[in-house]
Write a structure and sequence with these properties.
single chain, alpha/beta, 4-stranded antiparallel β-sheet
C-alpha cells in the first residue's frame, strides 16, 4: 500500500511538472518579439540578455541587409536599430522598411550624430537613444512603444467623414485617401484617439515626437498646419480646432 501511495505521489508530481513545462512552452507565443540590430557584439549580447530577462523573445542581426530581410520576413513588435551597420546603414534599413511595414523602431545613435537623429525621425523612426544609454530608460521606451502600438493596432477611428485605419495606417475623408507622412498620421491618430479632449502642445510633443525631443513645441503647430492643408483646405471643413492657450482638439 505504501509503495503504491509513493508511486501515486511520484506520478502526480511528474504530471504536475509536465503541466508546468507545457504551460511555459505554450506561453512563449505570448511573448513580444524584438529584433535587435547591432554590429557591436558586446552591446548586442547585453541587450539580448536584458530583454530576455524581461520576457521578450529576441532575434539579433549584425548586418544591415540581413536585418532588413529579417524585419520584412518576420512579425516583430519592435525593432532596436543601430545606425552604423555594415553593408547597409540603419537609416537606409529604416527607409526601406517603411515602404512595407510600420513596426515601431527605436534607433541607436552616437551622441554627436544629430543629423542621424533628425533624418531617422523624419523617415519614420518612433524614437531614438544615444550611446551610451541607461538600459532602464531603453526598457521603458520599449514598453511605451509596444503598448502604444498595441493600443492603436486594429482600430478604426471615425469622426464624421474622416476615417483613420490605425492597423493599415491609412486616412481618408469621405472615401478619398489622404496622403500623410508618418508624423502627420501619428498626430492625427493621437488626436482622434483623444476625441473631444483638448490636448496640449507639450502632451502632443511627448506622444508623437518622443519625450526627449529637443525641438520647440512650435513643431506641433507646423504639423497641424500640414494636416489642415491636406484635409480642411481641400474639403472645406474644420477638423482640428485650436483652443487658444490650451492646445488642439478634434470634436
Amino acid at each position: 500500500m505504501r509503495a503504491a501511495a509513493r508511486f501515486c505521489i511520484c506520478a502526480a508530481a511528474v504530471l504536475r511538472l509536465a503541466e508546468v513545462v507545457s504551460y511555459t512552452m505554450g506561453n512563449t507565443s505570448d511573448k513580444k518579439k524584438i529584433l535587435i540590430v547591432e554590429d557591436e557584439t558586446q552591446i548586442s549580447r547585453f541587450l539580448q540578455l536584458e530583454l530576455e530577462h524581461e520576457n521578450y523573445e529576441c532575434t539579433a542581426c549584425a548586418d544591415g541587409r540581413e536585418a532588413l530581410n529579417t524585419a520584412l520576413a518576420g512579425d516583430f513588435d519592435l525593432i532596436v536599430l543601430d545606425v552604423m551597420l555594415p553593408s547597409l546603414n540603419g537609416i537606409e534599413v529604416l527607409r526601406r522598411l517603411r515602404q512595407d511595414k510600420q513596426t515601431p523602431v527605436i534607433i541607436l545613435t552616437a551622441r554627436d550624430q544629430v543629423v542621424d537623429k533628425v533624418t531617422g525621425l523624419d523617415i519614420g523612426a518612433d524614437d531614438y537613444m544615444t550611446k551610451p544609454f541607461a538600459i532602464e530608460e531603453l526598457l521603458a521606451r520599449i514598453r511605451l512603444h509596444i503598448k502604444r502600438n498595441s493600443a492603436s493596432g486594429g482600430g478604426m477611428l471615425k469622426c464624421g467623414k474622416l476615417t483613420v485605419n490605425a492597423e493599415a495606417r491609412v486616412a481618408s475623408y469621405d472615401g478619398h485617401a489622404v496622403d500623410l507622412t508618418k508624423k502627420e498620421f501619428d498626430l492625427l491618430e493621437y488626436l482622434m484617439q483623444n476625441r473631444n479632449v483638448v490636448v496640449s502642445r507639450e502632451k502632443l510633443l511627448d506622444a508623437v515626437w518622443g519625450f526627449d525631443f529637443y525641438g520647440s513645441t512650435n513643431v506641433v503647430d507646423v504639423y497641424v498646419r500640414y494636416l489642415r492643408s491636406k484635409i480642411d483646405d481641400v474639403y472645406g471643413v474644420t477638423v482640428i480646432e485650436t483652443v487658444r492657450g490650451a492646445g488642439y482638439v478634434i470634436r
